Amino acid sequence: MILASTQAFVCSEPVDMRRGVDGLSQLVDRAFGRDPFSGAVFIFIGKRRDKAKLLWWHHTGFLLLYKRLEHGRFPHPHTLSARGMSMAEVAAFLEGIDLTRARRIAHVSASRVA
User: For 39-55, what is the mean pLDDT?
Assistant: First the structure.
């Protein structure tokens, strides 16, 4: 449903998980300086780091995904916000994979096949 090319952004500060769609969409403008209707996925992590919400505008309305961990914690949001996330990384994040320990292979700019 969400394309792999969709950008994802993590809020660098913990967020009150009582916020709903309206509160989080207002926070997108203040925290990210971005338009909540842009089609990007915005990720918010709670203070205890056991809850996360993802906000995404899809054509006719917002989709709000909420995940509560029964064991363990999400990485500190400041660590995740320092770099952008791909949708593959978002999927891994939701699976409980600690992305702070992963490293990316450098992108290659190729102009022709050898």
Answer: 94
